[in-house]
Design goal:
Layout lengths: L6 H18 L52 E2 L8 E4 L5 E4 L6 E5 L3 H12 L9 E5 L7 H15 L6 E3 L5 H5 L6 E6 L2 E6 L4 H7 L3
Parallel strand pairs: 4-5, 5-6
Antiparallel strand pairs: 1-8, 2-3, 4-7, 7-8
InterPro entries: Thioredoxin-like_sf (IPR036249)
Protein name: Thioredoxin domain-containing protein
Keywords: Signal
């Protein structure tokens, strides 16, 4: 792994390893293996409890890591505890906008999450087969991340993964992941006849075609 790897990514991997240990022992559902755990604290601490310096953000292509079989089921959950009708985010230019999942699907992703990277690749490469693409909200940043840093990391992700067609937004608050993606990344918020639903984890193209064709 690169020496400039992000603290948040490292913590996410540690938590994922713990999750997979629990999964293998039958404590947790296999569903958890299809996505990355959120990271509530974007800072690191030294042994004496003081905050360590925030490392430089750097994108890494992790699409070959933590490979799982994508979920084949359309298995959303009702969005009962989160308001996805008023998601405050920033554009790359720094403009504050409010997204509403009733108007357009919103996909919450973290740049360090392998499941998110593969999902974005899948949606981008098959966008002609989808009725619509979700807007992307980039979350999972460490505390005090500046917008320019987040934009640069996302631009490198777009370049390395050859992504096309996405409208990108940013939620820099480290708590945004827990708020909007409490199960983990990636999380899609969208509306169907039952109201606003959330879909967590990697899924097959047929699932994405189903939910994004509504």
């Amino acid at each position: 792994m690169s020496t400039v790897s992000n603290t948040v990514m490292n913590k996410g991997v540690i938590r994922l390893n713990r999750l997979f240990t629990l999964i293998s022992s039958g404590v947790l559902s296999l569903l958890l293996a299809s996505g990355c755990a959120t990271v509530t604290n974007g800072t690191d601490t030294t042994t004496n409890g003081t905050s360590a310096a925030k490392p430089k953000l750097a994108f890494q292509n992790r699409t070959r890591e933590l490979v799982v079989t994508p979920d084949t089921k359309v298995d959303p959950s009702p969005a009962t505890d989160v308001d996805y009708t008023h998601v405050s985010v920033l554009t790359a230019a720094g403009k504050r906008v409010v997204l509403d999942a009733r108007q357009t699907p919103i996909l919450f992703v973290a740049y360090w999450c392998p499941h998110c990277q593969r999902t974005l690749e899948l949606l981008s490469s098959h966008k002609s087969e989808l009725s619509r693409l979700p807007v992307i909200v980039n979350v999972g940043f460490p505390k005090n991340t500046e917008l320019q840093e987040a934009v640069q990391v996302e631009a490198e992700e777009t370049k390395q993964l050859n992504l096309h067609g996405f409208q990108m937004y940013y939620a820099l608050d480290p708590a945004a992941g827990d708020k909007y993606a409490p199960q983990g990344y990636p999380t899609l918020a969208y509306e169907n006849v039952r109201g606003i639903q959330t879909l967590f984890g990697e899924h097959t193209l047929s699932v994405w075609t189903s939910v994004l064709g509504l």
